[in-house]
Amino acid sequence: MELRHRGGGSSVLCFGSKVETSSWDIFFRNANAGAAPGTAYQSPPPLTTSLSTLSQAQSLVQAQPNVDKLVEDHLAVQSLIRAYQIRGHHVAQLDPLGILDADLDSSLPADIITSTDKLGFYGLDESDLDKVFHLPTTTFIGGNESALPLREIIRRLEMAYCQHIGVEFMFINDLEQCQWIRQKFETPGIMQFTNEEKRTLLARLVRSTRFEEFLHRKWSSEKRFGLEGCEVLIPALKTIIDKSSEKGVDYVIMGMPHRGRLNVLANVIRKELEQIFCQFDSKLEAADEGSGDVKYHLGMYHRRINRVTDRNITLSLVANPSHLEAADPVVQGKTKAEQFYCGDTEGKKVMSILLHGDAAFAGQGIVYETFHLSDLPSYTTHGTVHVVVNNQIGFTTDPRMARSSPYPTDVARVVNAPIFHVNADDPEAVVYVCNVAAEWRSTFHKDVVVDLVCYRRNGHNEMDEPMFTQPLMYKQIRKQKPVLQKYAELLISQGVVNQPEYEEEIAKYDKICEEAHARSKDEKILHIKHWLDSPWPGFFTLDGQPRSMTCPSTGLNEEDLTHIGQVASSVPVEDFTIHGGLSRILKTRGEMVKNRTVDWALAEYMAFGSLLKEGIHIRLSGQDVERGTFSHRHHVLHDQNVDKRICIPMNHLWPNQAPYTVCNSSLSEYGVLGFELGFAMASPNALVLWEAQFGDFHNTAQCIIDQFICPGQAKWVRQNGIVLLLPHGMEGMGPEHSSARPERFLQMCNDDPDVFPKLDDFDVRQLYECNWIVVNCSTPANFFHVLRRQILLPFRKPLIIFTPKSLLRHPEARSSFDDMLPGTHFLRVIPDSGPAAQNPEQVKRVLFCTGKVYYDLTRERKARQMEADVAITRVEQLSPFPFDLLQREAQKYPAAELVWCQEEHKNQGYYDYVKPRLRTTINRAKPVWYAGREPAAAPATGNKKTHLTELQRLLDTAFNLDAFKDLA
């Protein structure tokens, strides 16, 4: 029978063979007697040995009563080694304060030898401490030795796993990775530093510490969320960047909360100190557009020389709101984009570093969502280094009340990321761990976590009193010697530096701060653009001049429309078998192309295909977007006979086209939308779209919408052209699959309902001044145009599109090629073109509406034979509001009542947004009536009959010309 140890070769054991048993007996006896490595083993007699020889071997075994004990002892030692590898971190001295347990458990593991009486757990006793035991291949504590006394084995295990570093890795199911980690921490004497490295570490600690002290001296009553208690973070980050730069990385994208952000900006990214100091001036005026944000939320982009590696490196710190961890997926998306655009398919040039607080890391679900993107093909960034600033407190909440897991970092175990806990008051241990983390990422291209177990010297901010809630902890903190002082004293005692050299280093940095402070007083204007994390050089100018505030026609020549349509209705790969149902869909597409018409899916195809020809990369992401939730898109074809063989016809349109990326996401909205937002930040020359499975589901991504998309330009002067596709419409499908909550997006629009804009180039200038664009198209052609306009505009704004469900296959929701040819463009308003428009003076009512309810209204108008009495005007672009076009419409029908008609409930949808703007448009000359569903708490009924009853009621109201007389 052959037994194979993972990675350890094989050995043949003949169970029941006393010949083989005797050879192992001899081996263990020789090893126990101290035989030199390689000499303990003696070959067994050959299988043809005579019976007399076997008899002698049997008598030899019987003469050795301790054989079983020897075997058991060796197995016990192997179990002991494994126990330290698995649970040694529970015993490590991680808390700098010495009062808490980093794992929230004060008990000691029974299988860790903390005293000699615990040897009994393994069936050993003190007499075994000096016995020599052979070491297994799964440990490196022996160095060049293959056997050690038990006493030395335990000592070396304690040095490797129970000092100031706690290593969690034994849950990783890859032997090579486990062996790599063991070697990094178990090899004797591996954590050595040269005197020069120690001096560099001291200098970085000086900068980190004195920066905070300088801010405290100058602005003692200002919030800054300083780094006191974890000053080692600065050398930690610089170590990760240095090692990564050495391994070939030239672009690092970072995300972090507010604690320590100013220090990171100053001493890691090397932002000019005067730019930071001037932010504390309350008299500072804003020079640029937008409201800006507080200084400890802002980001930065900087390219400089890394002095350690003498290589250029670009550092970007993404702006982050107070919504902790919200920037995590944004950073990952931006990193993925930068890797994509520079062809870095393995993450060797571009990487991300994410900083976290301990309470947020454990408490915020977005951390888990982001981790689960880490190894998905269309979302992986090939490894992120996570650094947790573990204050052992969350605002005022004790960690025992903030999480159920032993460590705040346990969520990282779901992706088999190694976790290195380290006492932040041991700078050399921190630097060593950070070097290992950077090497891990470079070697395996997987996530890794560094848990800096530290403390927070002040309260939640500098104005907060922590003694209210954590008196014992803060009594100890008040007595705690700062890490800089402790490390300086250590190096002075070692003779690495002397006191004058140390004081000179402090004086040198203090002088730098003072001089920068003096220069900062000359800054009277806040240039927020100095704080951009994603500049787009060259985009806002053309031939050195600002780009013209115009938008060309978004139409396309017929030849291109036909070509795209033909590819969209075919399979451009030989010997590829598609589903029979899909064959019918493609055939229908082909017939539409012949008839010069498009439906919704084909219009989208043509918009995408035309942009790809123009060199615009397109990325469409979301749950089930490859096929489309409503089985309408089918951008990825699957061979019915060959597993995992796919075809993306969109990538076969043109010889030198831009790439098209369409990718089904994990079942996440918050994380994936944040990722796509970050991807869109990297370049303005890409169309990045996120589609909700149903529009209702964007509410679990509300933080990204509220904090980044809606106010992004106002807060950080950062334009972004991301597109949100949100299926919306009352179809009788219940409250979870009906409403994309248009009222929420419209409420956050920044246009004034009471002011009629006086603008040149009204349509484009209005777009430039809004915070985002909100549309609800009723025709495929308009959908085509708005997608193309998103790229052809001379600036970038987020675009919110309420997309249809039933209109995807509605026979009337078709557009002609004529509506998409050169010279055509997006229609903000589609006026009535029927009999009512021919005799506008006779029209009694104008129904303003948006989206699919238009088709319900036209059907009902025709059924009531009221085409000449009622005009129906479609508002395709809701924000910015088309004041100019609707004014023209209202003036066209002088005798008509004005009614806003919607299928949504009165307290939802568009009415509260549209009504005051319509009244401003007509100068309040008439009332604006409402026809639609009554107010309700839920977005829609779940009962089909009730749905139809409600729909008929709103149609009755819309076309009953006497309905509003009593109200009037």
TrEMBL record:
InterPro entries recorded: 2oxoglutarate_DH_E1, DH_E1, KGD_C_sf, ODO-1/KGD_C, THDP-binding, Transketolase-like_Pyr-bd
Pfam families cross-referenced by the UniProt entry: E1_dh, OxoGdeHyase_C, Transket_pyr
EC number(s) reported in the record: 1.2.4.2
Compartments (UniProt record): Mitochondrion matrix; Nucleus
GO biological process, one term: tricarboxylic acid cycle
Domain Transketolase-like pyrimidine-binding: 598-810
Keyword Metal-binding: yes
Catalytic function, reaction form: N(6)-[(R)-lipoyl]-L-lysyl-[protein] + 2-oxoglutarate + H(+) = N(6)-[(R)-S(8)-succinyldihydrolipoyl]-L-lysyl-[protein] + CO2
CDD domains: TPP_E1_OGDC_like
SUPFAM superfamilies listed in its UniProt record: Thiamin diphosphate-binding fold (THDP-binding) (SSF52518)
Keyword Calcium: yes
Cofactor annotation: thiamine diphosphate; Mg(2+)
CC terms in the record's Gene Ontology section: mitochondrial matrix; nucleus; oxoglutarate dehydrogenase complex
Sequence similarity: Belongs to the alpha-ketoglutarate dehydrogenase family.
Function statement: 2-oxoglutarate dehydrogenase (E1-like) component of the 2-oxoglutarate dehydrogenase multienzyme complex (OGDHC) which mediates the decarboxylation of alpha-ketoglutarate in the tricarboxylic acid cycle. The OGDHC complex catalyzes the overall conversion of 2-oxoglutarate to succinyl-CoA and CO(2) while reducing NAD(+) to NADH. The OGDHC complex is mainly active in the mitochondrion. Involved in the inhibition of cell proliferation and in apoptosis.
The protein, known as: 2-oxoglutarate dehydrogenase complex component E1
Organism expressing this protein natively: Zosterops borbonicus
Lineage per the UniProt record: Eukaryota, Metazoa, Chordata, Craniata, Vertebrata
